[in-house]
Each structure stands twice: as C-alpha cells, then as structure tokens.
Amino acid sequence: MNPIVVGLLGITHPHASARVRALREIDGVEVVAAADTDPRLQYFVDKYDLEARSIEDVLGDPRINAIMVHSKSKDMVSHAKRAIAAGKSVVVEKPGGGNVEDLEQLLAASESADPSLVVQVGYNVRLAGSITRAKDLLESGLIGDIVSVSARGSALVGEHLTEHLNQPADMGGVLWILGCHMLDAMVSVFGAPESVNARVHKSPRLSGENSREDSAAVLLNYPDYSVSFSFDGHDSLEWFESSRITIYGTRGMIEAGVLPQRLKVYLDEARDGWPAGWSEWTESYFTPPFARTESNKFSELPELENISNFRTEMRGWVDSIREGAENLAPVSDALTVARIVEASYRSEENRGACADIPRP
User: Fold this and answer.
1) Which residue in 217, 212, 199, 125 sits closest to 164, CA to CA?
2) What CA–CA distance (Å, rounded) separates 300 from 243?
3) Which of these, 58, 248, 327, 359, is most buried using a 10 Å CB contact count?
4) What are the b/e assignments for 180-214, b being 16+ CB within 10 Å?
5) pTM value?
6) 339-348: pLDDT as tens digits
C-alpha cells in the first residue's frame, strides 16, 4: 500500500477539518502539516495535531505527495499550480477558484501535469449514494426517456451574509459559492447544458448592503429536455436537507434527496425487479447538523458533524492516487459548473434571455 502523506495549503475554508478527519480514517494516509498566513492557523494545527509550516516548506517536503487547498478563492489556483509543479496530487476546494478564468487555468495545469498526478475539485454532493444510484437507474433506462427535471437547492438562513460568501475576488455569491454543489451534481448526472435562462435576485429586505445575490432560478436547456433549478440562502433547515432532484421520465420518475440520502422511484408498471408504484430507500431519518455547535455554524473553522460525503470523496481521491481509479470530480466538470453560473449572471443582465454555455 503506497503511503499518502498530505499537507494543507490554506485552512480557512469550512471543509478543511472535515477532510482531515475523513483522510485519517483511511489506512496508510497521514495528514502532517498546514500552511496559511491567517492567524487562526495555530488554533487549527493544535486542534488537529498538525505542524504549522510555510507554503514553501510544505511544497518542498519530499514525504508530502498530496496537497489539499482550502484557501480563499483568489488563491486556490495559484496554490494548486505550485503543488502540481512540485509533483504532488491535489484536491482543490470547490468551486476551484473565483471565476471561469481561474477554472480554465486550473484545467490547463491539470492537463499538462504528470499523468501520475491526480487533480480533483472538492465537489462531493455528486458522490451521495442517492445521486449515484439515481444516475445508475437513469442509465439503465428504468424510467424510460427523460422528459423534464426539477431541482431545488438551499443554504442555511443567514449564510449569504457571511464573509465567506462575499469574497471580493469571487464572481458571485450564494449561486456561485453554494449553488455550485447542486449544479455539479446535475452536471455529473446529465452532463453540460447547451444554454441557460436565469433570474438572479437580491432581496433588499433579507440582504445586507454589501452582500451579493441571495436567490436564483435557472433553466438549464438540453437538446431534448430542460432542468429547472431554484436556489436560495433562506432555508431554516440544515444544509441540503431540503435539496433534491426530481426526474420525470416516460415510464416513471425518480426523486433524490441529498441529506438525509433518500431515493424514491415511481414506475407505471413493474420492471427490472422493481414493483409498480412507489419504492423508497433512505439511508437515515436524522440529519446530523453540519456545525457541531450553534456558535460555529457560520465560522470559517467549523467542525462539521456530518462528513459522510467527505469520506466517499477522500477515499476516491486516495484510490485515484494509489491505483489510478477514476477521478471522481475532475476539473473539467468544475469548469462546466463555472460556465453555467457565469452564463446565469449574463442571462440576468439581459432580464432572463438565453445565454449559451461555451464549449471546451
């Protein structure tokens, strides 16, 4: 078993501690060091038993062969490019940068990297069992041809006002930083749309003077069907608890919920071992809160309680590095997500007019 030794560049993204914990559950994996100019670095390394180092020291350590980037969006690509140049595999926190140009640079760097290196973006909602099962059932033809899709995403009320969602270098707010999770899940299932029609909204009553958009409605246009996607930052439930994708087919329908992971299948008649009517699979009936305490739910260093998708994500990253397994969240898909969001903003500028998605 090839040892995987991991260092962090940046610790201020809320997912940093979750990935450290998930990696440490995997045999033969060590997480040893972290670098950041943020004054909270010492708190983080003390809490998670890491060594505080400079970026140069982390990248120059020959033992470290994998890097996790959890910096501010504006630094994600530069950190990732330095790690790739140093011969290390990388997972870059979603959305992978601040804008489309960042993702284009990241893709170019990943494509020119040594083939033994794995460059993955930190999207893991796509790895929820409900999403992957839905994709498999669609590909099997269980519900026939897709007719239409309706999707809903949300963020916990108040999160759109936080510093994390209003970084100056980011091209947008709640749609870009959080809506990207569900958009990526849909890209993983349906591929890239041809165009979008979108309205992106900021409520003066619910948003601060310096905050960005707090809701959006996006129509993703595919050759034979459309996907309607709504997202807002005003949900009183836990993250992703009310998020779901409903797929209507010519012979039935599928509904996939993210947390708790839930799959509902309706068939007009029995087929392939499935009965007519409704069948339901649920992983759990209780969704553990993401933040462990009320005080840290919007902290930049929260300890996330529910790390189920992070376990799947980190196992996939490690298997890709060790065994050449499939990259579970390639940069090319993250670039597609960035282009969808950028096209949504263009559509809003033209009051919902159709905006094409650039092709690679």
Assistant:
1) 212
2) 23
3) 58
4) bbbbbbbbbbbebbebbbbebebeeebbeeebbbb
5) 0.96
6) 999 999 999 9
